[in-house]
Amino acid sequence: MIEKKKLIEFFRFGIVGCIAIAIQYAVYLLLIDHMNETIANTIGYIVSFCCNFLLTTYFTFKVKPNKKRASGFAFSHLMNWGIQTLLLNFFLWVGME
Questions:
Q1: What is the pLDDT of residue 48?
Q2: How far is 97 from 91, CA to CA, in rounded Å?
Q3: Considering the entire predicted model, what is its pTM?
Q4: Count of CB atoms within 10 A of residue 22's CB?
Q5: End-to-end distance of the chain based on CA atoms, in angstroms?
Q6: Which contacts of 16-21 are long-range, i.e. CB under 8 A and separated by 24 or more positions?
Q7: Residue 51 and residue 29: Cα distance in Å, rounded?
Q8: Chain segment 59-70, per-residue pLDDT in tens
């Protein structure tokens, strides 16, 4: 049986993920008319990343941020940003806007 604490963390994780997606997309939409799509997406990703890290540490897992947690979080998100950027540019290249 799943522990109650782990189940609560799972739901908080989902909430934080939805918030991070909304932040990234909102920033992207605000910037898209003023700059290149990749740059707008990257700025949105950075803003979202910062919010996501703070919410994940304080809200989801109820721990304090430190350098070790930040570096692990940054590494996993660096991979995610790279894949996301490749896909964004691919879909723009094929004409999906």
A1: 98
A2: 7
A3: 0.88
A4: 12
A5: 45
A6: 16/52, 16/55, 16/56, 16/59, 16/60, 17/52, 19/51, 19/52, 19/55, 20/48, 20/49, 20/51, 20/52, 20/55, 21/48
A7: 18
A8: 999 999 999 999
